[in-house]
Amino acid sequence: MYENHPDEALQQLERAKPYDFGTDANLITIYHRSEALLKIGRYQEAVAEFQRLLNARLVNPNSPYLALAQLGVARAASRSGDRRKAQSALDTFRTDWHQADAALPVVRIALGEGLGQ
Questions:
Q1: Which of 23, 62, 70, 99 has CA atoms 20 to 30 A from the CA of 30?
Q2: Which domains does the chain show, CATH number per domain?
Q3: What is the C-alpha separation between 85 and 4, in angstroms, rounded?
Q4: pTM of the complete model beyond 0.85
Q5: CA–CA gap between residue 83 and residue 107 (Å, rounded)
Q6: Among 75, 76, 116, 112, CA closest to 94
Q7: Got the DSSP string for 11-28?
Q8: Tens digit of each residue's pLDDT (9 = 90 or more) over 70-102
Q9: What does the pLDDT read at residue 110?
Q10: Residues contacting residue 102 through CB under 8 Å, at least 6 positions apart
């Protein structure tokens, strides 16, 4: 619905912030808020929001958004100019997913991803 309208998505997701850590939310609101911040170029805020998601591991340790958040940190940090943080996050993602099926799109993209994107 808001895929091509990250500003609008961000406004709607702000209203959901009090429910971010609810078990029914599965951390999805934090992830989508992070992605919206990344799309509109608010890179440091995106890094912070992705990190907020990673810090919530105990809320739902099996959430698929945790792994994607690590990749999000790498992308946002790279775009903000923090190469060290970007490389560290990308290395962590690759280490965590080293045994994953390389045919999975997220793995294929991350394994080939450079930090200049």
A1: 99
A2: 6-112 (1.25.40.10)
A3: 28
A4: no
A5: 21
A6: 112
A7: HHHHHTGGGTT-TTTTTH
A8: 999 999 999 999 999 999 998 898 888 878 887
A9: 72
A10: 108, 111
